[in-house]
Amino acid sequence: MIKAVDLGFGQVKAITDTQQVEYPAAIGTYRPVRFTSGLEAQDPVEKLCIEFEGKKYFVGSMAIAQSTPRVTMSSERFTSQEGLALMMSALLLLAGGQVEEVKLIAGLPVNEYAGLKKKYEDTLKGEHYVQRIDPTGDWGDFYRFNIEAVKILPQPIGTIFDKVLNDAGDLSNKQLASGRLAVLDIGKHTVDLALTDALQFIDRSSVSYSDIGLFDAFKDISLSLKGNGYDLPADSLWPISTPPA
Hints:
With 245 residues, this protein is an alpha+beta fold. It has 6 helices and 13 strands. It starts with a strand and ends in an 18-residue tail after the last helix.
């Protein structure tokens, strides 16, 4: 099965030809939840807990709700235990069976691509074992993923390929592909810019900016509004429709 996973600093996005998932890019140390009402969301993405390489994790929304979540803001996360646990969680959610041969497409920030591509490929290739856990501690299904092939892209390039290739991977929009195409990928904590000319990657004009993104923009807006006398709710950055009296 072919799967594509975007392991972002804010969200993990993953897709196959038949389904897709998205969840916060956070993990936390697992411990059984002592009580459940049965009225909580039953979506597998919203109650994701796994055991991977001998360690148990809350993943995504469960990590935010039930533990102190970790989100490493450096390139080390892609090949770390944290990054692999997030990746295996995505493969588990998209699994068509408990044993799968996987061809994986993943991305790296533009500035990290050359230095990390080979290491990331080597880390991902091979057999990986992951088991689902119920929030209350019961063991769930066990999965084995043999990642037999890996393709790593500079992250914004996937958007360009999506526009010029069809589902079979053939060039479907030759006019668009022959021009100069730029993608500005604004993430939660990073911004990536990639430029192609007739599908040739223009390296000198492609770049990543770290520690800047939507989170920082919203934070600046929040601080600016508070500085001008708006009483912002604690759990909201914006919008504020009515100024204080």
